[in-house]
């Protein structure tokens, strides 16, 4: 039986200690960008994998589960626990956080920051990156300009719906 004393080894153990430096299968984490959010010694300003619509939808789903209690659905920092008297987290819409590299958000989720504890044991690595991408979407939703719309789609912005007069507000 595993872990029961045995006379096979001189120390009475049934198992041997792992060789120092042994890494369990599937646990070698060589990709610093993916696992730390750090690239060339600084918080990364790029994602370790392509962010598609599917990735953003997963990021939104995970954000809604893990982040909204404090940060709310808009990222303003007025979540339900704040409404119940807990301290406000920062809004994602401040200049400081709009300019922060995406690796910053990944790092905060991984390591915690201030009153926020680490989510590394609750949210897997890929989902932390997806949440960081969704935070960028929330930030853009409040600060987008016409220049952020692809040129091919800009004409659609000025088109009036059928039957609506310009300036009617309906």
Explain how this protein is built.
The protein is mostly helical and 170 residues long. The protein has eight helices and two strands; from the N terminus they run H-E-E-H-H-H-H-H-H-H. It has helices spanning 32-36, 53-66, 68-71, 80-83, 95-98, 102-111, 125-143, 151-158; strands at residues 38-39, 42-43. It has a two-stranded antiparallel sheet with strand order 1-2. It starts with 31 loop residues before the first helix and ends in a 12-residue tail after the last helix.
**First-to-last CA distance:** 76 Å
Number of strands: 2
Q: How are the strands of the biggest sheet laid out side by side?
A: 1-2
What value does the average pLDDT take? 90
- Give the class from helix and strand content and strand pairing: mainly alpha
Number of helices: 8
- Helix percentage: 40-55%
Features:
mainly alpha, 170 residues, two-stranded antiparallel sheet, 2 strands
Which SSEs are present, and which pair or pack?
Elements: H1 32-36, E1 38-39, E2 42-43, H2 53-66, H3 68-71, H4 80-83, H5 95-98, H6 102-111, H7 125-143, H8 151-158
Antiparallel strand pairs: 1-2
Helix pairs in contact: 2-7, 6-7
């Amino acid at each position: 039986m595993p872990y029961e004393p045995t006379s096979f080894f001189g120390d009475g153990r049934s198992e041997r200690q792992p060789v120092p430096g042994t890494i369990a299968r599937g646990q070698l984490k060589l990709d610093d960008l993916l696992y730390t959010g750090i690239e060339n010694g600084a918080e990364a300003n790029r994602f370790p994998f392509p962010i598609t619509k599917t990735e953003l939808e997963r990021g939104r789903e995970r954000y809604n589960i893990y982040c909204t209690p404090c940060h709310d659905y808009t990222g303003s920092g007025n979540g339900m626990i704040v409404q119940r008297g807990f301290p406000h987290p920062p809004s994602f819409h401040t200049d400081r956080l709009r300019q922060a590299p995406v690796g910053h958000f990944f790092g905060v989720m991984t390591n915690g920051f201030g009153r926020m504890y680490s989510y590394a044991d609750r949210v897997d690595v890929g989902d932390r990156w997806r949440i960081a991408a969704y935070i960028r979407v929330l930030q853009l939703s409040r600060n987008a300009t016409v220049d952020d719309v692809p040129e091919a789609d800009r004409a659609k912005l000025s088109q009036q719906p059928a039957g609506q007069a310009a300036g009617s507000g309906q």
